Structures are given as C-alpha cells and as structure tokens.
Amino acid sequence: MPPRVAPAARADSYGVTGVAVAVPERFLLPRPAGRASRAGSACVRATRRGHPALAWAAIPLYDADTGLLVLAGKGENLLYCFEVAPAQPALTQVTQCRTEGSTRGLAAVPRLALDVMACEVLRVLQLTDTALVPVSYLVPRKSIQDFHEDLFPDCAGMLPATGAQAWWAGDNQQVGRVSLHPARRPTETFSSPVITCTPLQAADTSSTEPDADRSEGSGYSSPSSPASLSASTGPSSGFASSPSQKSLQSILGPSSRFRHTQGRVLHRDTHLTNLRGLSLTTPGECDGFCANHQRVALPLLSAGGQIAILELSKPGRLPDAAVPTIQNGTAVADLSWDPFDPRRLAVAGEDAKIRLWRIPEGGLQETLREPDAVLQGHTEKIYSIRFHPVASDLLVSSSYDMTVRIWELSSGREALCLQGHTDQIFSLAWSPDGKKLATVSKDGRLRLYEPRRSPQPQQEGPGPEGSRGARLVWVCGGDYLLVSGFDSRSERRILLYRAQALPEGPLSVLGLDVAPSTLLPFYDEDTSVVFLTGKGDTRVFLYEVTPEPPYFLECNSFTSNEPHKGFVFLPKTVCEVREVEFTRALRLGQSTLEPVAFCVPRVKKEYFQDDIYPPTRVWWEPALGGSAWLAGEDGQQHRTSLQPTNMTPVSEAPKEAPARKFVPASVYLEEKSDEQKKEELLNAMVARLGNRDDPLPQDSFEGVDEAEWD
C-alpha cells in the first residue's frame, strides 16, 4: 500500500504514514535534505505507546494554521488528533474520538466554514457505510461571546494568487490570507472569479507569520480537550443550500422494505434451559448444532461423541440427571437433519465415517448406540455434510482428503467423487434447484461443479483472502453466490458473485467488522434477506440482497445481551404469520436454547401480508428420488401459500377514504355560521328573560285594608 504524505507544522517539514509505519504507533517527520538532526538522523520520530496500530494505512488531515493533525484508518472507528510542533516532542496527542460507524473516508471542512463563536477550531467529515458524519473539535473557553484571536489566526482566502501561465513562468505568489473574525470576514462568495495571468498581490500577512510560535494558552496541547460530535447545518456552517435539492431517496439510495425488522426473544415458556455439558469445540466448518421443525441435536462434551436430542414441543427446564443421548462413538465433526425425514440425522465423525441415526417417534427414550447405516469412503477427517435440497436420499460430504463425495443413502454407496481441490474446503452448498454445487477453500478459490457432468470444476474464481475461514450460500434464485470471509487485515466481509461469471471476481464487497469468528450466513429465499452472525457474537447482521446495485440493503440488526454459542434458523412453516414473523431462529447460550422471532412491524396485522409471504417452497416433500437424480432427471418442488383460512390478504383489503389534507375555506365559514347561530340563540333567550313585562306572582295576591293595620 502506498504511503500517505501530509504537510507538517513548518514549511520545511512534512509527515509520511504508510504500511511500514504503524500509525499512530509511529509517525515520522523526515527532515529536508541538508538539515540533519543532532544524532545525524534524517527524521524526527514521535512514538506514542498504549494504543493499537491501525489496521489500514492512516488518512492524514493536517491544518497548517492550527498545527492540528487528524489521523484515521479505514475500517476503524477511532479518530486521533495530534498537535504538530517543530520542537520536541514533535507530536502531542490532543484527543481521540470514537465514532459509531467505521471510517471509509475522511475530509476536512474549509476553515471559513467553522463556527468560530463556538470555538470550533477544526471540523472533519467522516464517511461511513451509510452516512456522512461531521466531527467538530471544540476548545473549551469560559466566554463564547468574544472572538478568540489566539485560536483563529488568519487563514488562506478563496481567491487564487496567480494564474496557470504565471505559475509556469516561475511565479510563487501565495494565496492572500483573510480574517475569521465575523465582523471582518470578507463578503466574497466561494465562487472563484475569472482572473488573468497577471499575478495578484498577496494580502498582508505580517500579523500571522507561518513560522510564528503558537500561544501557550491556546489549549491545543491539553489531552483533556474534548472532541464533540456536531451535526449542525445552521447558518454558521458556511455552506449555502442548493435551490435544487434532490430528494432524500436519490441521495441515500434505495432502502429495504425490511429495514425496520425487529428481532425479539420469545417468552421464557418456550425456552429450553439447564443445558449442561455442551460441546463448544466443534470445527469451524460446523454450525455447532442443527435443528428442524420438531427437534434439535446438540453435541455434548462427554467422551464418545454423545449427541443430545431435544424435542422443541417440550420446552422447559431439563432435569439435572443425564438425558438419553446418541452414542456416536467418535468426536462429531458436523451433523445435519434430513429435510425430507425429520427423524433421520446424519453425523460426520473425525474417523472419516458418516453415521445415519433414526430417532424414535416422540423423541429419545433411551440411549442409541447402533446407527442405521455407516458410510465409508473418505480417508481423512470430514469437514461438512449437506443433504440435497430437491432429491431424497442424497448426501454430499467434504473431507481433508481434498475430495467431495456424493452418497446415495438408499443403497449406502458412494455415487460420485469430485476432484480439483488443493487445500482445505471451508464450505459447500447446493444450488436451490439441486443441479450445481459450489465450494470455497483455503487456497482462496471458489469452485462451481455440475456433479453429473464432470468431477472437475466447471468454473473457478477468486474467493476471500486469508485462511481463517469462509462460508457461502446461493442467493437471488440461484443466480448469485454470497460468500462470507476475511480480508488480509482480518476484517469480516461479504462478497457477491454472479454464478455464471466466477472468474470475473465479486460484483460487490461489503466490510462489516473485525472479529475472530467466521460469519455463518442464512438466506431466506422468500424475502431475499440474508442473516449473518458468528459463534461468540452478540449481533446478527441483516441485509436484503438485490441483483442490481447497490446489491446489499442494510436492515436492523439483532443484538443479544450475551454471546451466543450457535445460531440456527428453522423452516419457514414455523413462523407466526399473524405477527408478521418471516423468520425464526434458535439461539444457543451458555445453558439455554432460546427461540428468536424476526418480525416486520405492520399496522394492519388482521390482514395476511401477502407482500411478505409469497408462495413458499414445499421443502418437506422431495421432487424426485436420489437414483432418478443420479440418472440425469431434474425436478421442481411445489409451492404453497402460508395464508390462514380466516385471513384476508392485505392486497384485497378495502380501501379507506384518504383523509383530506387541506380543508376548504367554506367549511370554516359554515362552522363559523353555526357558532354565530348558537350565540344569537343564547343572546335571544337571555334578552327575553331580562325584558319580561308580565306581572310577578306576588302582584296577584290580595292584601289587607290599610285600616286593618291599625
């Protein structure tokens, strides 16, 4: 990777960062030729201990007016700020800022756009995967009412100092400097005027010489200076808004309809608890455990390759006593349930044998010691096993002997053997139609086979870098391959390939985070959403995969409180359609097995969300037998609707009359007339009561004669 160069504190020094120099662990300031140091060295080295080296070459941004240097590495979420000085120490750390997203790019905002009255001395823009984040560096001052000249020396203006022809002729005029004081700030706009080749005279810079030492009271050298995040775009930003603003959709790009997906752990009554003696040392090619819609198989740590079989229909706390298990006889390398027979379990052992076990109806009641069948043919330990998605009684396996073998279970024989691998096989996957088989291996190659045509790969292409592990899955109807792996800097990432053009390389590459475990992908073919998580992770990434750019549309992630030991997804038919649940998984914790439901928030849950639930594949019924597939036949599984009988599709729901956004003025006039009528009626009633001329009741009484009072 080429080094990065940035100007340093003085005009006669500069800084270099690169792969050979771990920044910010070491930052070199080479001296110009002819100016050797006291020790005869050609550079001044500033070393900062206690911080990890960046995984990427650092991006340096240097502000010559303040002497501040910002360093950030691609893929990192830390921004380091240093003060560069011509004397020792050459570098003094000011602060470091931790951001939410990983850095993909970095740029400095012009000084004329700073909010000087808020003591903002530097602002950089951090480009992440989904946003452009402004990061402001503020110097705390008691008073922010006055302009602090020690913080804001004059900076370069916006007018060029000379023309192109004059520069070619040897003219070295400097750009005129302007003041950042709000009262003395120039009124020129940012647009550059048309100039002639005649050099322009530079402004007077006697008050701010570039070699002048900075004030001791500037506060830049204090490590406690805060770095605050600011997303303000007010008038102080210095940027005028364009009169022709694009829509938010055109700026941010397309978004997924599953972006608000909510993952939640179901009620404790559905959990399996008090799990003991779980094996956490299964190979990296294994998911750790496997499950179908009826039961789950968990490898145990005890000797003999024991496997616990737990019924999902019987949740609760397991007894402290030992439960019935399968005695596999050797350590478990991988295991998988037959999709067409929920009672048949295939277990690959480290003794290069595959054992087929049949679970009794209702679950294990006693320990199983004798398998139904044993498949032998590999000469080394087995990596992984996968059942055929369309044909029954077909199983594929990969091994340390660098071969991939396809077994016909009805006869117990090896039907096909695929060659062409030169190193460890990390993962393999059948295409949705069952015609092709893809593998990814440690030699960094993707291989695509058509097993019935040739034992050699039909295509090869570059896979993910590194040798730490990889997984792959078919997406978008089998036209694309999604591969999860690592890059040379151990960053986890996903790659999308066109299945018919593997040699051309990936169409898109998306970096996620830095973690030691390989991401295990699960793809929901009905919604085109891929779920990615690793053993020991606490987060599940969700992306909708599309066949056109940008290919990956981010959705809400699911985060758990503690790391999970495994994360396995269940068939689509177990989802609660009335709650708009489109995927369900089982999360294996330290001693619990918890179901996790992924739902899409909808307002009208009383309707069947037919846009979320297209007709799904009848995965539990094979399209043809294994012998027919080996003979060259192909089959296609039927599809069925998940719509309950008493629910109406949301597409057929009655249309509600839209509420009027603007009420005509006549409505207000009519309402006002009614109020006036009420007031007039009330006034009339009061007036009638107050102006009555009728005699009072006591006026009609007959009194006594005046003489009688005597």
UniProtKB/TrEMBL annotation:
Principal place of residence: cytoplasm
Spans traversing the lipid bilayer: none
Ranges of residues in domain DUF1899: 250-316
Biased composition (Low complexity): 217-238, 455-467
Composition skew (Polar residues), residue ranges: 188-209, 239-253, 638-649
Gene Ontology terms for molecular function: actin binding
SMART domains to which the protein is assigned, alphabetical: DUF1899, DUF1900, WD40
GO biological process, one term: actin cytoskeleton organization
UniProt entry keywords in alphabetical sequence: Actin-binding, Cytoplasm, Repeat, WD repeat
Signal peptide segment: none
Job of this protein: F-actin regulator involved in anterograde Golgi to endosome transport: upon ubiquitination via 'Lys-33'-linked ubiquitin chains by the BCR(KLHL20) E3 ubiquitin ligase complex, interacts with EPS15 and localizes to the trans-Golgi network, where it promotes actin polymerization, thereby facilitating post-Golgi trafficking. May play a role in the maintenance of the Golgi apparatus morphology.
Family: Belongs to the WD repeat coronin family.
Protein name, entry field: Coronin
Native source organism of the sequence: Grus japonensis
